[in-house]
Write a structure and sequence with these properties.
mainly alpha; globular; transport
């Protein structure tokens, strides 16, 4: 193998590794908020005479971060398609790290009253704004560096990084959650947020060394760069954006699993916090291996069959997981939790980074992915709050499972209506010859 061939092969790997590490660090920040919202924020930022109301408000503050995602998608999508993927990736990791550290510095409700939850929500909005450009930027970078026949495999590393971030977030909270209650609510919860200072340093070092993608440089920056990428996106590719929005509600499986189910188990059923956190850790460890395997499978047999199979499996297994929580059986909880989130949900996570990106040409790819996914993710972000309302007491898990299954059905419809893209050459992506209908 020549030096030139080695360099060519090294670029996809370098982009995938950078996407993995960057997403792990960024989503560590994003998910420690969800864990804290489920376990302690109802006590320190939303104390009320009714614990259930405090829990609902804390979970709603988690969802607020998703409100900023569509706004961030429009702005950062424009920047990424007009000026380059690298600028977006450096900016997002910087903003996420700073806003997360500041959450750990906030005074509580008892100290400054309503200003405390107001500041918390403001910083959560900044987190959401940052996350809007993170995955779309990393996915575009990985996809455009990847060989045509392995696009799903290389782009899946962004989502593997997201799972790693969830592992880090949960693992850091394990010793914190084991603290005596008075220490947990006074200072312990702050430690995971302060550790985010590492994100700023490590993320900037890694992403500042990335090369811009050849697709952007050759096809966009030099000859076809759009000054306003959103105009051709909505004019020519509105069907792809709409399809991605509907398909992206599958992310509700993640938010229900990581936030609502944790709150339901601890606050409603009365299960211990530490074993519940371990369910998430082990499921995400399994997902680290499962995501690239499902992605590689889709490179061979197609995106749609793998994606649809994963969505259908999530709809079924959510019933098993929530039921197992209501029984309090740890054997059932770990079994269903790992099968649902570690295995079956990984089939969707392994596919969407490539599948959604392949719906758009390079000149609007980052915008299309960012806008489509972040509107869909915004809907998914409020799923824990909706689940809290419709779930009610201990037996309300059935309604939550039905709600989640309905969202999975929407995903299946959107994915089934899309064009199969695994064999389409990279330069021809997003250039469907069929009418733009959904």
């Amino acid at each position: 193998m020549t030096d030139g061939q080695r360099a060519h092969l090294g670029k996809p790997r370098k982009a995938a590794i950078a996407a993995w590490i960057g997403s792990a660090l960024e989503y560590y920040d994003f998910f420690i908020y969800g864990t804290a919202a489920a376990l302690v924020f109802n006590k320190i930022f939303f104390p009320t005479s009714d614990p259930a109301t405090g829990t609902l408000l804390a979970l709603a503050s988690f969802g607020v971060g998703y409100l900023a995602r569509p706004i961030g998608a429009f702005i950062l999508g424009h920047v990424g398609d007009a000026f380059g993927r690298k600028r977006v990736l450096v900016f997002t990791v910087l903003l996420m790290g700073i806003s997360t550290v500041l959450v750990g510095c906030l005074p509580t409700y008892d100290q400054i009253g309503l200003a405390a939850p107001a500041l918390l929500v403001a910083l959560r909005l900044l987190q959401g704004f940052s996350a809007a450009g993170e995955q779309a930027g990393a996915n575009s970078m990985s996809l455009e560096h990847a060989p045509a026949n392995r696009r799903a495999y290389y782009t899946s590393f962004t989502l593997s990084g997201t799972q790693a971030g969830q592992i880090l977030a949960t693992a850091v909270f394990l010793p914190v959650a084991a603290l005596p209650e008075e220490h947990l609510v006074s200072w312990g919860w702050r430690v995971p947020f302060w550790l985010s200072a590492v994100v700023v340093v490590v993320g900037l070092v890694i992403r500042s060394k990335l090369d811009e993608t050849p697709v952007f440089v050759e096809e966009v920056a030099e000859t076809k760069r759009e000054k306003t990428p959103l105009l051709p996106l909505f004019r020519d590719h509105w069907a792809g954006v709409l399809r991605v929005i509907v398909a992206s509600v599958i992310a509700a499986v993640s938010t229900i699993f990581t936030v609502y189910a944790l709150s339901y188990a601890v606050n409603t059923v009365g299960l211990a916090k530490t074993p519940m956190l371990w369910v998430g850790v082990l499921a995400n460890v399994v997902a680290l291996a499962a995501i690239p395997l499902f992605a590689a499978l889709s490179d061979r047999i197609g995106r749609k069959p793998v994606f649809i199979g994963g969505s259908a499996g999530c709809a079924v297994l959510m019933f098993g997981y929530l039921w197992s929580l209501s029984t309090g059986s740890w054997a059932l909880i770990f079994t269903f939790g790992i099968l649902l989130f570690g295995v079956v949900y990984s089939a969707t996570n392994g596919i969407w980074p490539a599948f959604y990106g392949e719906m758009f040409p390079a000149k609007v790819r980052l915008s299309g992915m960012a806008v489509g996914t972040q509107i869909g993710f915004a809907l998914a972000g409020f799923s824990p709050s909706i689940a809290e309302v419709i779930g009610g007491g201990r037996e309300g898990w059935v309604y939550v499972a039905l709600f989640t299954a309905g969202l999975c059905a929407l995903n299946i419809i959107a994915v089934a209506s899309a064009r199969e893209t695994h064999e389409v050459p990279t330069p021809e992506l997003g250039q469907s010859k069929t009418p733009a209908t959904v």
